[in-house]
Design goal:
mainly alpha
Length: 50
């Protein structure tokens, strides 16, 4: 359930975060940071579980 919730939150922030929160991201740096944090979270969860 937590994985599904975090996935939905990631997709929403990645896709529509700039419009919702009003940040300016002409070079995609905020989206890159969100993607990196999501991937690192998956890796950390996998290592903790394994």
């Amino acid at each position: 359930m937590i994985v599904g919730l975090s996935s939905v939150m990631f997709i929403a922030l990645f896709g529509w975060g700039a419009e919702y929160f009003g940040w300016s991201d002409p070079h995609g740096r905020v989206q890159w940071a969100l993607f990196s944090a999501f991937v690192l979270g998956i890796l950390a969860g996998y290592k903790t579980k394994g």
